[in-house]
Design a protein that fits this description.
- This protein is α+β, with helices and mostly antiparallel strands.
- It has a domain at about 280-535: Dipeptide-binding Protein, domain 3, CATH 3.10.105.10.
- It is built from 14 helices and 21 strands.
- Strands 1, 7, 8, 9, 10, 11, 12, 16, 17, 18 and 19 form an eleven-stranded mixed beta sheet that branches. A three-stranded antiparallel beta sheet has the order 4-6-5, covered by helices on one side. A three-stranded antiparallel beta sheet has the order 13-14-15, with no helix packed on it.
- Strand 2 (about 65) and strand 3 (about 70-75) form a beta hairpin.
- Helix 5 (about 240-245) packs parallel to helix 6 (about 260-270), helix 7 runs antiparallel to helix 9 (about 365-375) and helix 13 packs antiparallel against helix 14.
- It is globular, with a radius of gyration of 23 Å.
Length: about 575
Amino acid sequence: MKIRTLLLGAIAGSALATSAFAERGSDGTVSIIYWQAPSILNPFLSGGTKDVESASLILEPLARYNETGTLVPWLASEIPTVENGGVNAELTQITWKIKPGLLWSDGTPFTSADVKFTADYCMDPAGGCAQLTKFDGVTTIETPDDLTVVVTFDKQTPFPYGPFVGGESPILQAAQFADCMGAKAPECTEQNFNPIGTGPFVVDEFRPNDVITMSANPNYRDPAKPAFANLTFKGGGDATAAGRAVMETGEFDYAWNLQLAPDVIARMEAGGKGTPVAGFGPLVERIMVNNTNPDPALGPDERAVVRPHPSLSDPAVRKALSLAIDRPLLVEIGYGQAGKVTCNLVPAPAVYNSDTFDCSTQDIAAANAMLDEAGWAMGADGVRAKDGVRLSYLYQTSTNAVRQDFQALIKQWWSEIGVETELRNINASVFFGGDPGSPDTFQKFYADLEMYANTFNGTDPQSYLGNYLCDKAPRPETQWQGENISRFCDPAYDALHAELTQTAGIEARSKIARQLNDMLIEAGTLIPLVHRGRLSAHSNTLGGVILNVWDSELWNVADWYRVEGS
């Protein structure tokens, strides 16, 4: 029996805020601050949220998710489905129709050739595309005319909305990036720092890890938008300074990711200049567990590639590390009502949230007993060891007050089970930067354990769970790109994920997704800590802001405007 319906919530037009402006550029300058500074404006070469979201001001996809998680057309004229003929009955092909008359910011036509080029660019095996999972199963991209793109998959694909959907998979201009294929991709500094786009803004100047100045795109498809003639995107500093700059001093209009304690947010809001906005999506703060050996003696191209890890390869060690953590306390001190305990990689949407594990209770005694039974004997120095290998770890994360508080607490708890911990924090702009030449990126993972949060676009976790396939591990030949940060590899996981890609129906898909989640947690490839709400803030003089936890937070910046009388 052929499957006639696709997994998707109601597909409808987005209900964007009605703007209060009448002509492009009438409201002066808008200023945005991300305390993690962008290092590149090409999301195909970075998995960092700061890079993906800053690029979303310039580069756009065919479709994206609105604030309710509903898929809506963006550069496409409609969302292809079986019912409207855009997806074939066999679920092996999807046909996108591009809105007519679209222009790149340089005034040249946006066509299907640009879309096909983007796929070729990301799927080049030598390119190290950070978003490669979006193109899993794609065999051909055809362009029968300038406004039609036909994507064919190698098998039935009930959820074909991976390529060209969401802020992580926008379209690059073929003419600009033609000489940047494969291994040349990270070398194209001019293109990666100054992409030509279809979005509401164009880059005037990009200073990596510092500031981006932009101006309104003169060829944007709506002649009345954006309201702002200029945009300043400041990066760096810390979350505290960013929050104050919006809610206390009014220096900036929008501050992203205010990873701050609840009492700090409350004091800032009392400043009267701005308003915090929050919402829960699938964002999870976690500790990634290295499955490979990060020993510096192995050399730069072998660290985090050679298997196995000397001690974290023991399941008892990984489980003991998790048991020793008091997650409710972490939520309380770090996030308050903007956080929840989670034992899963995918806590949302609710249908994908597994109930297999209960990690809400800290159990130091059980963790010690587990390590005793596994033969890790406590030494005179308070550190366990076995066969000459000590439980001594480098635990790294980005520089942030909440994360450093977490590190200090977790180090103390681990010391109570005989684990020695060296703490390291790295500037967020570097840590999440994706520079293949840097030893300090989260992708290279030159540590035993590392902590950060990430999420996924949309409400279906297929591509997100696909990040843990064996071939998605960052390594030298992929320019250290890829989202399988822990280097987890299990053929059974790969096979089950392949089943997910061919399964339709929310009930069946959610069952498989929960099983995949459980495989990752049971294997100890990561230690989930907190299901985080997205918390940002905007000036009281900035209108049109709609927080979106399912796509780029800056998804509707074209609709922002200055509130009258401010």
